[in-house]
Amino acid sequence: MQLCLAAQTRFEAAGIDSAALDASTLFQHALHQALGNRVKHHHMAQHLMDRAEPDLIAAYEQLVSAREKRQPISQIIGRRAFWNHDFAVTGDTLDPRPDTETLIEAALKLGWRSVLDLGTGTGAILISLLAERPGATGMGTDLSASALAVARDNAARIGVEATFAAADWFDGVTGRFDLIVSNPPYIALSEMGGLQPEVRDWEPHSALTDFGDGLSAYRAIAADAAAHLTPGGHLLAEIGWQQANDVTAIFVSAGADVATLKDLNGHDRVIHAQFGGKST
Description:
alpha/beta, Rossmann fold, EC 2.1.1.297, Small_mtfrase_dom, peptide chain release factor N(5)-glutamine methyltransferase activity, Release factor glutamine methyltransferase
């Protein structure tokens, strides 16, 4: 118990809002490292009362020190829960966020049997969709070879078959898909300095920003999406909560019908675009 309380105090001093939760999460992970198996949450109380062995203290100190430097929990423990699975996360990938589940929910309401995920990162979007729709096929693309390696490992571990390829948006992608999805880098370069340290200092900048106005990815996707969609196909892309008007204008100019979907907090989160008429 004293270990967790001490860690919580250190986290609070470092400006971490979730200090108590993070101290508990990391203690559970340290137990896993020390014992060799995961400790269920309802068994934590007993371990908190027990006298900590030196190997547990050392393991916990290493984790606490990393979090104190504002490294994200997901990178420290190597995984992040998203939709129905835990996904491996590294410093080469964007940390899957709960807001992105808005895109998953929307996609599963649509009729599709093939999906293309542009900028797949951990593969969380693509793998979550394919796991929910047996028999469907999918491809994930990314510029980062390291991210693609993480995505392939996640797919294999979760038991989903998917194709992964290095590509700059649609460059090198052939064929048509019923559904195109993407969570592109949409943070403007001017906004990067205001991000939380966990994001700004630890996540790959190329997955966060286009180093411009935050809209270049949407311009590239909108320009070529129609050529890679089957008739009546759908495109779903995550957006920043203040970008709906700008992104809608980009897709409308490319000939799409566009709707905006909100996340659970009521913020604009996903645009749904179709080219050449709507269908479900």
